[in-house]
Amino acid sequence: MKLTLDHTQRLNLHALLGTQRADVGSIRAIWAVQDKFALDADEEKAIELKREVVVGQERAVWNPALSLPPKEFGLTDAEIARIKTVLETWDAYGASADRRWLEPVLDALCAR
Fold it and tell me: How confident is the model at residue 94 (pLDDT cuts 50, 70, 90)?
């Protein structure tokens, strides 16, 4: 499946995938998906991405006035299933705060 994501979606999916607890094989599979979504150095510079540690957790912050063009990703059925599971089981979304990036991802995955 092809999934087109903007930088906000990529960063949020990367972060959500990173919160997962799993066995070593599953963790390696999660890392592979995270690696696909990761921004390269030029993309990070273009949006002024910075990482900070808050209460022991790494958090990404960037300049909201800057953006990157959406990017298309080819994902396997197993990768899509893993992403759906993460999205469906995360219980800390903000109804307003996450809608802008989350709703298009859910629409794309559910249209499948």
Answer: confident
